[in-house]
Amino acid sequence: MATVDEIIAKVRSENRKILTEFESKELLQTIGISIPKQALVLASNGADEVIKTCDAIGYPLVMKLMSDKIVHKSDSGAVKLGIKDAAEARIAYDGLMAIECVDETKAISVQEMAPKPIAEIIIGSLQDPQFGATVMFGIGGVLVEVMKDVSFRIAPISDFDADEMLHEIKGFKILDGYRGNDKADFEAIKDTLKKVAQLAYDYPEIAEMDLNPLFTYKDGIVAVDGRIILKDE
Ligand code: ADP
Ligand code: MG
User: Fold this and answer.
1) Domains, the chain, ranges and CATH?
2) How many angstroms is it from 131 CA to the middle of ligand 1?
3) Tell me: the pLDDT tens digits for 102-151?
4) Using H for helix, E for strand and C for coil, what is the string for the chain?
5) Ligand 2 centroid distance, CA of 96 (Å)
6) Which residues form ligand 1's pocket by a CB distance below 6 Å?
7) C-alpha 192 to ligand 2 mean position (Å)
8) What is the pTM of this model?
């Protein structure tokens, strides 16, 4: 497995500062955050190569187009969920190839379809000009955008800080066994918060991280999307 430094060095060597989702999740996996099994295929390798990769990952799966030109993948039709077999994978591939984007290096990320979670959460980081590395936590979806229901701390954070961050959002109820649902794995959420905070603190070069969403379960948590942005050189 590549180290954090190796992943960053490769991105810099290509004169980029935005890691693709694939690279961002590879980096998260390096620091011990779970991600769905993933494989990358150059789109130019053609449908057969993509299908071979899909068969190796196993169905159901998700296909996404990785391109510098695409920021919000689902808005561009670049996320194909719930692909059940090779025939559906071929249709999804054609759909991704039809997306307008000027980028010869475009690649397809084939990934396991993570099971339905208890809730989707968001964890992020920023380098604040005054406070340095900071970490953010919130419930995914409309709650975070509309309600601004998030908690922040200066990194690195202790177990106590992580526990406060988890409990102080209004949406905590959603994670706490709302209407007979299972409770989310609080230890796994706190552990992920601490890891993201530590990474932001250790690497001031990482300007921004956006893990949106992470799927929470009774046991464990999985980052299904990630975006890491480096500072200008
Ligand atoms: P966007 O760039 O639009 O944020 P995402 O990668 O977050 O794209 O995908 C959109 C949504 O699709 C996610 O919020 C999540 O609900 C679902 N999703 C994405 N990847 C997976 C996956 N591997 N397994 C299950 N659901 C997924
Ligand atoms: Mg997302």
Assistant:
1) 37-112 (3.30.1490.20), 116-230 (3.30.470.20)
2) 31
3) 666 689 999 999 999 999 999 999 999 999 999 999 998 776 777 789 99
4) CCCHHHHHHHHHHCCCCECCHHHHHHHHHHCCCCCCCEEEEEHHHCHHHHHHHHHHHCCCEEEEEECCCCCCCHHHCCEEEEECCHHHHHHHHHHHHCCCCCCCCCEEEEEECCCCCCEEEEEEEEEECCCEEEEEEEECCHHHHHHCCEEEEECCCCHHHHHHHHHHCCCHHHHECHHHCCECCHHHHHHHHHHHHHHHHHCCCEEEEEEEEEEECCCCEEECCCEEEECCC
5) 17
6) 36, 62, 64, 72-74, 79, 81, 111, 113-114, 213, 224-225
7) 17
8) 0.96
